[in-house]
Write a structure and sequence with these properties.
Blueprint (H helix, E strand, L loop, with lengths): L1 H29 L3 H22 L3 H4 L1 H19 L5 H29 L5 H18 L5 H16 L2 H9 L3
Helix pairs in contact: 1-5, 1-6, 2-5, 4-5, 5-6, 6-7, 7-8
């Protein structure tokens, strides 16, 4: 469960990074300026705020699993539909929906990880998920893959045992 949540968080990081790389092409194809592309980026962040503050609290009544699956479906469909838009306005609306899904998922995943992680490693698991998962998505395209792969090894080692045992496994201690 922790690994799946980590992968979802990584995909969120990749989504943000890929949009950054696509911005110049979007500007040219849609005939818009940098200020309008900035609003496009903000649409996704506004959606994340809505998802985290409005949708995620519904997990208590709907169930975390159901909410996460519905939110992932929303984000996925909006991401796929983004490839077929013809105007900046259409893309902004879809980015809001992508953000809503991601915001709801990110808030709910912390609770899921806290529920499934061993009691003595709960805080570490949640912290590693949020720090390394998002960073891995940003840099997983080759920029800092080696350093972040080491983070993956640490996460895997911590999941198998305690922090001290993880350090021994990763760094070869006795």
């Amino acid at each position: 469960v922790v690994v799946l949540c980590f992968v979802v968080n990584m995909i969120d990081g990749m989504d943000v990074l890929i949009l950054s790389y696509a911005a110049p092409t979007l500007q040219a194809d849609l005939g818009v300026g940098a200020d309008e592309i900035g609003v496009l980026f903000s649409a996704g962040l506004a959606g994340m705020a809505i998802g985290g503050l409005v949708i995620a609290p519904l997990a208590d009544s709907l169930g975390r699993r159901n909410l996460i699956l519905a939110s992932l479906a929303t984000s996925t469909l909006a991401m796929l539909a983004s490839g077929f838009v013809g105007t900046l306005g259409q893309l902004m609306v879809l980015r809001v929906f992508v953000g809503i899904g991601i915001g709801a998922v990110l808030a709910s995943m912390a609770a899921i990880i806290a529920e499934y992680a061993p009691d003595r490693h709960r805080n570490l698991a949640v912290g590693l998920h949020h720090t390394l998962g998002h960073a891995r998505g940003h840099f997983g395209l080759g920029v800092a893959d080696v350093d972040l792969a080491a983070g993956d090894v640490v996460c895997a080692a911590v999941e198998r045992g305690g922090a001290r045992e993880a350090g021994d496994r990763v760094f070869g201690g006795g």
